[in-house]
Specification:
alpha/beta, 6-stranded mixed β-sheet
């Protein structure tokens, strides 16, 4: 071996732990000298710590930190024994003892957060985000007494809102009394389709969103501006951007509960009350807000309907309401829109979405995998941007040319002119109206797909940017589209309800706090926001990984008492336009305009007495004195969560 003499051990001039695939770092001479000094200091400190630990096992600060880090990294017990032998790590038993200590401290932290709220609003309870988990406690050598068991659990975290936002609102708006008053006032409010019509400012903003998407594709793949890009609208105007601040999050202890039923939700509430350290009366005296996926919200509504009417605060759940998770809403709506525009992959003449994916090298049968949501959003963006790129070339008269290998050099004025032409000819409402032709629906179908996919791309980008104003605009549009499309029956009720709660029904102070708490930036960096349920999904993945891959066995008690509470500590260690009528490649079936169809369904229901529209009223389920037979979910008690993971 050429490296046996150690010549390759000193090739890293930066004296760092930079990996072979990390971005290279250019350091000046002073920085390189400082890095060498730091490396020598760490080596000397480590050697001294190893010698001290060998002579006295109680002086184990570094070794204990390494032991927990190695558990998080999945190092096997055999390797850990060697590292313990040479004095670099504590034994695995000590590491688990440390995790149990951290778990006990985390349990006390949960009680402290639940007892007293922030100084500005001491009675305001932290927001709670929960999700379901399935784990299997595997027994290798089975017997009558010992069998592999599947556990259905619920896990989540407490989120304390930004103190600056809490200090800026009236504390009275955050009380249970203010919430009940607001819900009672909305009990008789008439819900009309006009509440979900985009106003002038929202329509103009949506136009700027479409133009920014065209501009982004133009400058990314086709051309570059000779005189800068300052006049080219690459990003839509911001509406309500959240502060990029690291959130105050405390993980809850994993709770074992029945699978996907109102009984399971009841067990979760009992578990939350136990972890809070509060009495049942005190727990029911404060406003409690839960955020979860659709299945969680439906099961909660089922349990609440079964307990209504009820004058006992400890049992009625009158102090609690749920909000849909932003990430699950995006994923489920995106899948419904892909299914709508997917087409028939068995028909080569069909120009549905599948044809574009095949042309881009993506197997169409892999797109609708519901468990890979991130990949699904990437494929939507690929199809959307490829379609826009073709439209740009079509406007420029270059649609028959091969895609330019090098970007064209154009003036910013010329680029803006092409962007305006693309919008006016293909993305404007007038263009969609002119394109409708029952004999040749290909162009209209393509424009509908552009419009629908643009909302997915916009919502995804708005969430990353932390612009909750843009997200709410998309939810307002989706509230109508969910009524006009098949497959989103429950979202057609719960999404409009949530939109009305966040924009009209709740007290102003509570609305502001909730809107500024729907998205978080886990690292505290701008443009790195995620929905709270997306963050919880990541923690779920880490928990499952540690459970199955650390070589510790599969004891469910260890998962509940050690890993679930200490996860943050452990994780922090690592011719589509139909121009030619002669072509036989055209969409045979006309795609439904779900936005227009949604308004038609709403208007038709209003003429018949507003039976369905009244179900969108938040007070239908949240007001204790209001009993609506249409909301009794007793016969639908077993609700299959659309977003549950398969059994681990």
């Amino acid at each position: 071996n050429d490296n046996l003499d150690g010549e390759g051990d000193d090739k890293d001039d930066n004296d760092s732990l930079r990996g072979p695939f990390d971005e290279p770092i250019e350091l000046d001479e002073n920085a390189k000298a400082a890095a060498k000094i730091q490396r020598a200091h760490v080596i000397a400190k480590t050697i001294c710590s190893m010698l001290t630990y060998t002579s006295n096992r109680r002086k184990n600060a570094m070794q204990l930190e390494n032991a927990i880090t190695f558990v998080a990294c999945g190092i096997s017990d055999r390797v850990n024994k060697y590292l313990n032998f040479i004095g670099l790590s504590s034994c695995r038993q000590t590491a688990h003892s440390a995790l149990r200590t951290l778990g006990s401290a985390a349990e006390q932290s949960i009680k402290n957060h639940m007892k007293i709220g922030p100084a500005a609003s001491p009675n305001f309870c932290p927001l709670i985000c929960i999700d379901n988990l399935d784990f299997q406690e595997t027994v290798h050598v089975k017997s009558v007494e010992k069998q592999s068991t599947m556990f259905h659990g619920t896990w989540g975290y407490l989120h304390r809102p930004n103190p600056r936002i809490l200090a800026s609102v009236d504390p009275k708006d955050l009380t249970l009394e203010a919430y009940r008053t607001a819900i009672a006032k909305s009990a008789d409010e008439v819900i009309s389709p006009g509440m979900f019509v985009l106003n002038k400012d929202e329509s103009l903003h949506y136009r700027s969103v479409l133009k920014s998407q065209v501009a982004s594709v133009f400058l990314t793949y086709i051309a570059e501006a000779q005189d800068g890009t300052t006049t080219i609208p690459l990003k839509p105007p911001a509406i309500e951007v959240l502060d990029a601040k690291k959130p105050d999050i405390t993980m809850l202890k994993l709770m074992v509960a029945s699978d996907n039923s109102s009984e399971g939700v009841s067990e979760v509430f009992e578990g939350l009350a136990r972890q809070s350290g509060l009495t049942a009366a005190k727990f029911a005296s404060r406003l409690m807000i839960l955020e979860g996926d659709l299945g969680t919200c439906l099961n909660f509504s089922s349990l609440k309907a079964q307990r209504k009417p009820n004058n006992r605060p400890e049992e009625s759940l009158a102090n609690t309401f749920t909000l849909l998770g932003g990430a699950h809403t995006l994923w489920n709506v995106a899948q419904a829109l892909i299914s709508l525009h997917f087409g028939d992959s068995s028909d080569s003449k069909d120009l549905g979405c599948w044809h574009f994916l095949e042309a881009l090298g993506v197997k169409s049968n892999q797109v609708l995998n519901k468990k890979d949501f991130s990949l699904m959003l990437v494929q939507v963006q690929k199809v959307h941007e490829a379609t826009i790129a073709y439209l740009i070339l079509l406007i420029m008269g270059k649609q028959t040319d091969s895609f330019p290998k090098e970007k064209l050099s154009m003036k910013a004025q010329e680029i803006n002119a092409v962007i305006d032409s693309v919008y006016n000819n293909y993305l404007s409402p007038q263009a969609l109206s002119k394109s409708k032709n029952l004999k040749a629906p290909g162009l209209a179908n393509m424009l509908l797909r552009l419009r629908d996919f643009s909302t997915i791309v916009k919502c995804n980008r708005a969430m990353k940017a932390g612009d909750i104003g843009r997200v709410l605009n998309i939810w307002k549009r989706w509230a109508v589209m969910a009524v006009g499309i098949q497959g989103l029956t429950n979202y057609a009720i719960d999404l409009p309800r949530m939109y009305l709660l966040l924009t009209k029904v709740l007290p102003p102070g509570l609305r502001l706090v909730l809107k500024h708490s729907l998205l978080i930036s886990p690292t505290g960096r701008p443009n790195h926001f995620v929905a709270k349920d997306f963050y919880l999904e990541n923690q779920n993945f880490f928990l499952k990984y540690f459970y199955h891959n650390t070589g510790m066995g599969t004891k469910i008690d260890r998962l509940k008492d050690e890993y679930s509470l200490a996860i943050p500590v452990m994780v922090n260690q690592y011719d589509i336009c139909g121009v030619s009528l002669k072509t036989n490649r055209k969409k045979k079936k006309e795609v439904v305009d779900i936005y227009s169809n949604g308004f038609k369904v709403m208007q038709s229901d209003v003429k018949k007495g507003s039976a369905k529209m009244n179900r969108l009223r938040p007070a239908t389920t949240l007001h204790q004195e209001t009993i609506d037979d249409t909301e009794e979910l007793g016969n639908e008690d077993q609700v299959q969560d659309e977003d549950d993971d398969p059994a681990a």
